[in-house]
Every structure is written in structure tokens, then in C-alpha cells.
Amino acid sequence: MVPFAGWYMPVQYEGVIAEHNAVRNAAGLFDLGHMGQFSVIGPDALAFLQYTTTNDLSGLEPGQAKYTLLGNPDGGVIDDLIVYRNPEGEEGYMVCMNASNSAVDSAWWFKQSSEHPRFDVTLEDISPTTGMIAIQGPNAQAITAAITDADLDAIDYFSWSNGTVAGVAAKIARTGYTGEDGFEFYTALDDIAAVWDALMNAGKDNGLVPVGLGARDTLRLESRMPLYGQELGMDISPYEAGLGWAVNLNKGDFIGREPMAAVKENKPARKAVGFKYVGRGGAPRTHYPVAVDGEIIGEVTSGTFSPTLGENIGLALIKSEYAGIGKPLQIIVRDKPIEAVQVKVPFYKRDS
Amino acid sequence: MSAPEGRKFTKTHEWVAIDGDVATFGLTDHAQGELGDITYLELLEVGDSVSAGEPFGVVESVKAASDVYSPIDGEVIEINGAAVDGPEVINASPYDDAWLVKVRIADPAQLEALMDTAAYDEYEANQ
Fold this sequence. Notes:
The structure holds 2 protein chains of 2 kinds. Chain A has helices at residues 16-25, 45-52, 102-115, 140-145, 192-202, 213-222, 257-265; strands spanning 2-4, 7-9, 27-31, 36-41, 65-71, 77-85, 93-97, 122-125, 130-136, 160-165, 168-173, 182-188, 208-211, 270-277, 289-292, 295-306, 311-319, 328-333, 336-343. By secondary structure, chain A is of the alpha+beta class. Chain A has 2 domains: 2-220, Probable tRNA modification gtpase trme, domain 1 (Gyrase A, domain 2), CATH 3.30.1360.120; 269-352, Elongation Factor Tu (Ef-tu), domain 3 (Beta Barrel), CATH 2.40.30.110. Chain A has a 6-stranded mixed β-sheet with strand order 10-11-12-9-3-13. Chain A has a 6-stranded antiparallel β-barrel with strand order 14-17-16-15-18-19. Chain A is globular. Chain B is an alpha+beta fold. Chain B has one domain (8-108): CATH 2.40.50.100. Chain B contains 4 helices and 9 strands; from the N terminus they run βββαβββββααβα. In chain B, the strands form 2 sheets. Chain B has a 6-stranded antiparallel β-sheet. Chain B has a 3-stranded antiparallel β-sheet with strand order 4-6-7. Chain B is globular and about 35 Å long. The mean pLDDT of chain B is 95. The chains are: A alpha+beta, B alpha+beta. The A-B interface holds A 11-12, 15-18, 214, 218, 281-283, 285, 304-305, 307, 334 and B 36-37, 39-40, 42, 58, 60-63, 65.
């Protein structure tokens, strides 16, 4: 167990590689009690979300979800979020965000809602009463189907629905952080353990294992999903981070819009790139310097030995002029340059 | 698992087997368990000198990189190339197949400062 943003979380149960492979080949169960959830309700709920986040949420139908960013006034990013519009018959939205940031986010966000009285909105931190777990992997749906009355086929990617799971009321979302198919479950906090136990029981003949933070990180990195504090930060533009697709400059004004537009206009000075090792060496780790011809041009934001590919991979934020698939980089590992080459991301994409 | 008899141990979880003036170093079962799946091993080269308490290599798991520390002074006379090529052997066989380096002992008196098996088992149980 390690301290993680004020929570005690297991880095691994059985072992990072075994857990990683279980999610790619069968299924894994994730304790996400550390994530933060907020309810956003009121006549101006959509306008408030449009103004405080970067993506265009105006097209969300009831039950649909979208990835978006909380921008800061300087054009950096406070956090990344998934906004779920509540299912038919329920007003408002639920927002799910990171652990490490939820205190910062909520303080900032509450301030926005009070500073802009034109937004008639009620923002509530429901994390203390909300339980969250996820099942991910090719067997996730078969295992879930055994303990729910919900029509899982009717839940599209990035949408959610109400259902009874293990006898308790849940919201079932087809979202995740692994690059595999699967579901995230939200219930009342006191009910979530029953869902965990029922899934573990239903999955015992389907290869289901509990998965810790270690494999959560290797799975998301192979799928090139960003981690706040590494790929995303207060001083990194979404356009540098390769997340311009989560910014909509044409939806009207929003916090951070002008500086973000300026970065896009002038071409970002830095670019997030994927790489893999050509030479042999220790794994790339966050903040390791990246060089070309002996000149430092950036740093590693995330890196790991990839259990699926069997080689060292990583993401780096480098000066844009050096970016390009097939172009070389040197990763400086304990003062030793290791030859690497830029590759297409994601590193892993499941067969669909 | 109890550590094997007849070897010496460090507080940083390396083991030493002694054969005449040659010492063989490796990592204990406790160390490999703490590291998790080991994916990379880097060692000094034959002819390099080692000093007690100084690194003679780096071992990496999916989670992190850690130095491995020399229990005594000496000169490296052989390294385990099979463990460098397939470092997962450290997880599978920490006390046998995964020896790491052989060293010509400079000062046998330094061995006295290391723990014996019983002392290490007790030390490890309190970690």
C-alpha cells in the first residue's frame, strides 16, 4: 500500500505485469474510491460547464458523456474531467475527476460559480457519498451481465445508464482508463463493496483479478491516455499536450480560451510525442531529460516497460521542431543516453 | 522463505556467498518481492572495483529503479550475463540462478560486519 493523494492504495495485488495482462486478455477490477465526483444542477448547468471547461458539451444527449478539460486563465490545465449528462428523466450532470486534484478543482470551481452570479447553478461535491469501481477487459461485459438487469448492449462507449447491479442501484458507464472495453460503476458509497464482491465472484471463472495503481498506469500509458501532473499541467497548453481535440474554440467564450487560441495560432512551441527504445537501457521515467545530438530538447512525461509490447515506451514533451514519427531522440537515463525513436501513438489499440 | 544457510547478508537485502577469496553477490527473496516484476538489470564490468556500501548495479521493476549495493570492497571478476539478458530470473530464483557478480575479496575482515542467516531472517521479519 502507498499513500496516494491522501488515500492508501495498493500499487499491486498479484504483480503489475500479471494484472496488466489480465486486463488485456480477460478482465480486471479497479478500486476508484479516490476519484472525485461533482453534481452540477440548475438552469445554467450547461452554460456553467461550457464556460469553465474547454470542450463543447452542448450536443450531449441525456445519458451521454464527454472528455473535457478545466482550463486556467493562462491557457494551462487545472485537470481533466469526464462530464456525464444524467440519463433521461434526471436533470443536470455529473463530473468525474482526478484524485490528486479534487480539492484544488473544487475550490477553483466553487469560486467560479460564486464569482459569476449569472450562472444559476448548484455545484455539489458528492465524492464523500459516492462509491466508484471499474471493470475493464474483453470479459468485462460477460461478467457484468451476470449480476445486472441492465441492457449493457444499449450502453454505448462514453454513455451511461441506470441499472441494478448486485441488487443495488447504480449508474453504469461504458468508460475507462485502460484502452479496453469495460464499465465504471457509480453507487452510494455504502453499496459499492457489494458490487465489488459480486463482480469478483461472477468473474472468478473468467480470469477477473483486482488491479492496483501500477498496472493502471501501464495500461493507460500504452493507450496514450494522459495523466494529470505528467502529460497535463498548469503550464502545459492542451495543444502542446496533444489534446487539442478536447478544446473547442468555436463554442463561445470559456476560461483560458484566448491564450489557448494564441498557442494554436502560433503553432505550439512544444509537442507531446511517443517514443520507444532502440538501444538497451533502464526504463524511461518522468522528468528524465530528452536530447538530440547532445542538446536537451525536453523531458519524459511518462515512461514504462510496456508489458504488452515487451519494450520500453514513453511520452515526452519536446521542442516542436524535433517532433516527427521516425525521428530519433536520446533519453538520458542516469547520465547515459539511450537511443529511442518517435513512434505513432497510441502504443496499443485493441482489435475491435 | 528463510534465507539459505552459510551466506552473509546486508541491511539493503543483498546476499554474499563466500568461496575462498571469491565472493558472489545477489539479491534476497525479500528484495525481489519488494521490487516486483524485474525488467532490467545493469551491472559493473569485469575489472571494475567495488566498495562496501557503493552501488555495483541497478535493478528495475515496472514500478521503479533501485541501486544494488556492494557488501564489501573488491574487484569484479565475473558477471552473470544470463541475468542481464533475462532479469526476470531474479524473481524466479533469487538465491541460485540469479547470482549477479563474482568479486575478488579485498579485505576478508569486512565480511565480519555482515549478518548471518539467522540474523538476517530476524531483520527481514521486522521490515
